Amino acid sequence: MKNILVTGASSGLGLFLSKYANEIGYDLLTVGKDKKKVSKLKSQLDDKNKKKCHLLDLRDKKKFQFFLKSLKKEKFDVIIHCMGGGFGKHNPLISQKDLNELFNINVSLAVEINKEIIEKKLFKKNLKIIHISSVAGIESTASVGYSMVKASLIAYVKTLSKQLIKNNIYVHCILPGAFEYESNAFERLKLRNKKMYNKFIKEKLPTQKISTANDLLGLFKLLISDEGNILTGSAITADYSETNSFRI
Q1: Model pTM above 0.90
Q2: Distances, alpha carbon 204 to alpha carbons 180, 197, 246, in Å
């Protein structure tokens, strides 16, 4: 039975994948920072996975170190990094402080978790690591800060994968387009500004409809299997042709 770590598990794609992994019987370690949402997730998990559903804001250095130490008895098959976001930092002349904050939550914390797990051999054979970037990492579709950090993830995955493949560790990067699921950015936009939400769909999405998290599930099933190993290092765009970039 696979043992999976999901960060950013209290909303959006992290929440969706946590619930899916639990439903099919995987062992699951989840971490999220929203008390109400983590409590709701815990109530939906099997007893074995409830015990490893953590309410922690990993931006807090002491809590992050506590989390790293809590991994010492684990042996993971799959790591899925979903934590991240733009956190309302829309100023194109982004400050160093704000950029560092975005880089920390979108990139640095995941990098340190990977380091801890790999260096201390807290994984099984053929480890799969999946990072969630965004189409904003390859096209200028979002804020300066958000686009920068999501592009950084693409570079990290490509470079790291070349070093780890000889150890049968496979690192992937997924670039979702617009999709909707509980508490994610597009669900919040729909609730906050329905006119802007509809305009985005009409002008940006060739399908003329918003995707769902379930549309991404087949890709995740592939990447957590050995059949997806050939895609290691890839930045995989999953957007129903939303972007104009000439790449997968």
Answers
A1: yes
A2: 15, 11, 17
Residue type, 85: G
In a domain, 201, yes or no: no
Average pLDDT over residues 97-124: 97
Task: Look at residue 189 and tell me if it is in a domain.
Answer: no
Structure tokens at 115: 């380091």
**Residue 85 in domain:** yes
* pLDDT value, residue 247: 63
Phi, psi (degrees; rounded to nearest 5) at 78? -140, 135
User: What is the structure's pLDDT at 188?
Assistant: 87
Amino acid at 27: D
3-state helix, strand, coil in the chain (%, to 5): 50, 20, 30
CA pair distance 134, 152, nearest whole angstrom: 11
Which tokens hold the place of 21?
A: 């992994």
Q: What are the angstrom distances between the C-alpha of 161 and each of 104, 170, 216? A: 21, 6, 22
Number of domains in the chain: 1
pLDDT of residue 114: 98
The rounded distance, in Å, linking the Cα atoms of 49 and 231 is: 29
Q: Can you give the CATH number for the domain in which 173 is found?
A: 3.40.50.720
* Residue-number span of the structural domain to which 176 is assigned: 3-181+213-238
Residue 117, in any domain of the structure: yes
What percent of the chain stands above pLDDT 90? 87
CA-CA distance, 185 to 85, in Å (whole number)?
Answer: 9
In the predicted structure, residue 132 carries a pLDDT above the cut 60: yes
Closest by CA position to 221, among listed 211, 235, 231: 231
Q: How far is residue 100's CA from residue 106's CA, in Å, rounded to a whole number?
A: 10
Q: What size, in residues, is the chain?
A: 248
pLDDT of 58 above 90: yes
